[in-house]
């Protein structure tokens, strides 16, 4: 039987001389009806380019297919050569035969049109439906992706829906014409774990219902386990290994696959939690950072002259302390207030109430004028592209009234060496470094002032898994060496397990559970913590089915003068506390 | 040096660069008085003499050498253009940065004033200012400078607002960097590219506005030479002595073409998306 899609020796290049600038170099695979192929690779491996070549969207992205063969079996059984198909033919194939969903649901939808009209468009184009019929079809499409109250939601514009809902809308559009092939390009990367779990569950269910084939592109090999039949691992534009799911995950042959599987953080329900540097119960040491009753609210005003009618309660009464040499991970989903907490600690946003005290204890390298420093999420945005590394590292010193002298330069050199960068980095510019190297630079910059507390705001989230593992190792080493306290903000439970001593789970601006890492991860008490942990994709949880949960995060907008009820806490041994629900 | 090489590697940049280079040379010669004849000496016998070996571009109604006057005029017009654009760029950058950095009320006030200025056509506003302040070289510098300030303010404010929200600015705040350090190092340094392009293009407009003001008799005052003034003088002699109009007209046209080509080239060269990152 002929496969649905057959790709042979596909080559794609970019730029003026596509032959010389090949990004995909000879990829071959077959996809049978109803099969799911996962393409896994790190950024720049050519996985997205391969996918975009299949429906020839790559032509619009400046790429050129330089060689190979691609054949698609159409619904009527005829074969189409995708290499030579005319633009008119391709327009008929895209949407109708090959559906596609993208990474960023917020930007893939037109913000000024209602989602209803955007879904109807697909029916109009491919099925010729108009008026009532199109609206009814759009409602059915939304029902299909399990969006509750579909008829009303059709009139919403994208800004009224959350990221997870929008990705469902994107899926509804992609599936509108019952395509027999769905290409999903990192469809859950921009979403929270619990939402990711729901989207994955939805995709699996829809696949079962419709019997379509899926090409699922991801950088996260842990995610593959739940959905794929076959896996193809890509590196530098080549498919280094492909085969059955179990074979790839259990008996990887190629060293790169083995490396990937080794590097991906395995979530192990707390059994991998750190055992070094535990809190000494008896010692009454001064904490490196203590936060009491932190509240951050952003007033809502309808216009310039009116009084605030309410406020966004971004952070609503957060308390914690952080001992020297300890990592406290703050875990939560987007919009839960974890980044706002960090920014408030650094004074980047003004806190409405609450107090901090930063420990006065000398660090290993002496007292610092600025004891709290921060490393940001995006290493590409947090370094000024126009400054040399020397100027970048000098900035904190200049900012605190210091001079760039031989001593400063020596410190720069030793820190660069310590974070694993070449000595000649000083006169180079940020664009000459890779993402991982830039994040090392940011770490070096944060350490220039001998801080006692470093806030790491999703500091490894933007990095590829193998780079991520190395940066985490570096962070742990630096912590031991300088006695640093880390406030580690993350949404990724597997990463948190590797670095945290203690974990605080934050939900809707409030801490709902806090305690030592092993205890929180192995015996979560609060329902939200349980939900977060059960959503973590792992290689071990193969083909596990998630139940669909369409609850939305509660609105953080409160009327004027609203105060949350004081928290009641329940202890579960040691310092493991959970908020009483009810 | 790298920029110069890039300009000459760029198709329209090469042409624009050569044109602007030649004009700069002529302007310097004209300002230094190194012209074939004295631009204000009246050779009464040779009035309205057509172009010849002695008078390359002929003479005007008073018997003054057109080629020499053109050189002096280019010098004069370029001086006005350079100083007025320097004024506009400086004032616009400061106002734009202030509006973006201080935000809130400052942003509102500065940008509304700029909107009002922008609402007038350039030449009309310049006319208004010159009429109030009296004609002359330096009043036209100030007038043209004020006219083009809002454009620079807008060019600076937009990118500055987006730079202000970038993480490296947040990072700088966490070290406690001073506002002046952040504004100069993190904002201004990243605005060099758009500013350079804007300066080149503004030079062309300023040249044209200066010519317009002089044409209307409110810019450079006779007997000093300026491109607009020469065009204005040629108006009534268009048929008897066409060279009086053709040469200054061509001069203005080619110079503006040159600046525009150079500006386009700079925009391409300085755009990071067009730049290939060194490996």
Question: How would you briefly describe this protein structure?
Answer:
The complex is a heterodimer of chains A (582) and B (279). Chain A contains 19 helices and 22 strands. By secondary structure, chain A is of the alpha/beta class.
SSE order and pairing:
The complex is a heterodimer of chains A (582) and B (279).
Chain A: E1 5-14, E2 22-31, E3 36-40, H1 47-54, E4 63-73, E5 79-81, H2 87-93, E6 98-101, H3 105-108, H4 115-127, H5 131-144, H6 150-153, H7 163-174, E7 181-185, H8 193-210, E8 213-218, H9 221-224, E9 230-235, E10 238-244, H10 245-250, H11 255-263, E11 289-300, E12 310-322, E13 327-331, H12 338-346, E14 353-358, E15 372-375, H13 389-399, H14 406-418, H15 435-447, E16 453-457, H16 465-482, E17 485-490, H17 493-499, E18 502-507, E19 510-516, H18 517-522, H19 527-534, E20 557-559, E21 569-571, E22 577-579
Parallel strand pairs in A: 3-8, 3-9, 6-7, 7-8, 13-17, 13-18, 15-16, 16-17
Antiparallel strand pairs in A: 1-2, 1-4, 4-5, 9-10, 11-12, 11-14, 12-20, 18-19, 19-22, 21-22
Chain B: H1 2-9, H2 11-32, H3 66-102, H4 104-119, H5 122-133, H6 137-164, H7 167-175, H8 179-187, H9 192-215, H10 227-234, H11 243-270
Helix pairs in contact in B: 1-2, 2-3, 2-11, 3-4, 3-6, 3-9, 3-11, 4-6, 5-6, 6-9, 9-10, 9-11, 10-11
